[in-house]
Every structure is written in structure tokens, then in C-alpha cells.
Description:
The chain is of the alpha/beta class. Helix content is 38%, strand content 12%.
Amino acid sequence: TLNLLGRAGFARIARAVGALPAEAIDAANVIEAEIAAHMPLARTEMALRALLAQAGAWKEFVPTRAALERLRKDRALSHLLFPPQVALIGRANVGKSTLANQLYATERSITADLPGTTRDWVGEFATVGGLVIELIDTPGLRDAGDPTERSAIERSRPLIDQSDLRILVIDASDPNCHAEIEHMQAEFPDAMVVFNKWDCVDSPPNERCDHIPRLSALTGDGIDGLRQNIAAVFGCVDLDLSLPRCWTPRQVELLGQAGLSGFS
């Protein structure tokens, strides 16, 4: 087939890494064209179902003020198609790389009981509850004496700052973990806090920390719950497929024209 197309004048190009060009789409209306154009970006079944449901959802849409306001806040489909960045942060040797390997579902980061093992950030795609994320495993945040390690920490800082979600990993077996939470939250107040190494805890932390998820990256306990929590941050849990959603600049511009500024 490819040889026949080549002889007919078509050129073979590399696979598209983004949405297909509009001129390549044959559709009945602009919404259907946008759905077809973005299908290559749907990496999971949930993303594909949510995208394909948009034709019917927009056909039934009644543009009330409340409905438009919900549209302004809803970024779920955009997150499903354009993976958000999630950074694992914390002190050295709290188990970030072991946790990253659990979320990757494969061994991408080297782990060892030695601070400074992760000498540079590692970024790979992981699936959490039907949502694909770009997971960033960063070096331990500490005053490193080794110049190579210190340089790696400095290079990872912009990635941490620009991430859509930061997960602060705390060693629950550390007697000073409560002070560590307060210290790190002062620097990253919007981070999601999780206790790791729960399998090594002799006595549970005090009542102030009852709300913090507890897991063991070594045994896998609590990992599924963490996946759900991450997906929930981006509105990708229990999606109602009957609701219309915005995922293109054109749609965002139309919302702005409807008098709803600030959508980004």
C-alpha cells in the first residue's frame, strides 16, 4: 500500500507527535474534526472514550451560566490528552526512586540505600488510573558536597517549579519526620504529602498526620491509592462522559468570547 501511494505522489513522513493538521481531517463539523485530530494523543482507553464522547456531549449542550462556569474550570480532557508533569520531591534516601519505579511499573531509576544515588532527574510517562502523567524523579534535596550531585540538584529545580503537581515524599520511619514536613511545606506549600516506608514504622506518627496517605514503595502497599489521588488532582476520576469539555485553543477562545475571562 505504501509503495502504491508513493508512486501516486504521496510522501511518507514520520509519525505525528501532536494533533493531526486540520486539513487532513474529513468531518461533518468542527467538533468532530477536533476529535479526530486529537485521537493520536489519546494514550489510554479512558482518554479515547472521553474524547469520542464529545460529539454527543456538545450536541446536547445547553449554554447556561452554570454550565459555562463548569467548562471554564474543567481541564480533565486536556490533561488526558496532554500529560501533566508530576515531580517527586523530598530529602535524599526517602525512597523517591523506588516509588517512581512502582508508578512506572518498571525499573527506570537506580535505587540504593545511599543518599545521592539519583544523580540527575529521570522523566518517563506513567499511567495512573487512566491518566498518563510525565513523572519526574528528582535528586534528593540536600546540601550536597559532591559537585556533580549539587549540579544535578540545581538542574532539577526548574523542573520542580514548573511541574503541575509536586509530591513531597516523607520517610515515615524517620523520628524527625514531623519537623521535616513543616520544613519542606514551607518551601513547597502546595505539594501533596505522602508517607513512605510505612512498613518500617514501629510507632505511628501523631494525630496531626492522620490525613497523610501512608504507603510502602518497597512492598507496593498504598500505591493504587496514590495513583487515584494523583488522577483526582487533575479531575480524572469518575468522569461523566455526558459532559462537554474544552481541549483546544479555539474552544478556549470561544469561552472567553462568552464573557468568561481567565480560562487557561
